[in-house]
Specification:
Elements lengths: L1 E4 L2 E5 L5 H10 L1 H5 L3 E4 L3 E3 L5 E3 L3 E4 L4 E8 L5 H16 L2 H16 L2 H9 L5 H9 L4 E6 L6 H7 L4 E5 L1 E5 L3 E8 L13 H14 L4 H12 L3 H8 L7 H7 L3 H11 L4 H8 L1
Parallel strand pairs: 7-8, 8-9
Antiparallel strand pairs: 1-2, 2-10, 3-6, 4-5, 6-7, 10-11
């Protein structure tokens, strides 16, 4: 791909490593996550069994009462082999109260030693920083996968994770014959309204759910939806089971409780809450 501006060409840049991409993310984290945010260096979480998982940084969006765990990836690497095991370990560690307290203590100590961070808290009129951090870290983080190019299976990976997940494609273009000295970054910020297009995996689940609620046997529902999406039945079953962390029996049982299936889908697909309400309420 080439960008052309006033007859000057910019070519897509290939990052040398995930570390190089991560450094660019750190430089522009406020552009991605919003101005009232704080960045913290990578943290190591430890499960009860002592297994460690290290993230690529933590972002606190203070005015949104949200926090993000960064996972920086290159598309040429296997996201299945890295992201899923890594986030699974995060989840195991996060469930421990001592892990959440340690994160809170670490971030608080970094804030009190950084005048710029203290100033932002004062600007937002956050008087008890430790209390605010404790409440924030006790709420589930959003995993943010920042990648140089979205892959076909990235959507399914995001849907299968135990945390709300957002994926951001971050690309860099460099000026012809100059290189990184003159460059352009291309990405979609996480601030503002979420993208309108719903993941296909969610649309499949919604379609199956509606048909079963209307009285169609689940075998025929899977077949009907597979024809609608022009994919094999295994893909439909996968969207209703593996991506939701369920087996077929659990999925069918969950459909008997409307509020629970809606709550689960909203947790898995936080950017599509309105669509879920529209289709299932």
């Amino acid at each position: 791909m080439i960008l052309l501006k006033d007859s000057v060409k910019y070519f897509l840049y290939e990052y040398a490593s995930e570390e190089e991409l991560a450094q660019m993310i750190v430089e522009h984290y406020k552009d991605i996550f919003g101005m009232n945010t704080l960045y913290f260096d990578p943290q190591t979480m430890k499960t009860h069994a002592g297994i460690e998982a290290r993230n690529d940084g933590i972002i606190l969006a203070l005015d949104q009462n949200k926090w993000y765990i960064l996972e920086v990836e290159l598309a040429k690497h296997s996201i299945h082999k890295h992201i899923i095991p890594q986030v699974t370990k995060f989840h195991m560690a996060y469930k421990r109260s001592e892990t959440r307290k340690r994160i809170t203590d670490t971030l608080f100590n970094q804030i009190k030693d950084a005048p710029d961070k203290i100033m932002l808290l004062q600007t937002l009129k956050i008087e008890d920083a430790y209390k605010h951090l404790t409440e924030l870290i006790d709420s589930k983080p959003t995993i943010t996968i920042i990648i140089d190019q979205k892959t076909p299976d990235l959507e399914d990976v995001c849907a299968s994770l135990p945390f709300p997940t957002r994926a951001v494609e971050f690309r860099t273009f460099t000026r012809e014959n100059i290189g990184l000295g003159v460059h352009i970054h291309q990405f979609e910020p996480l601030i503002g309204p979420p993208p309108e297009e719903a993941p296909k995996s969610l649309l499949k689940v919604l379609a199956v759910t509606r048909l079963i609620w209307e009285g169609k046997p689940y075998v025929k529902a899977f077949k009907t939806v597979s024809e609608q999406f022009n994919v094999g039945e295994p893909a439909i079953r996968d969207a209703c089971t593996r991506t939701l962390g369920l087996n077929t029996k659990q999925f069918l049982k969950l459909l008997q409780n409307k509020s629970r299936i809606i709550a689960l889908l909203k947790e898995r697909y936080p950017d599509n809450r309105n669509l879920i309400d529209e289709k299932l309420s």
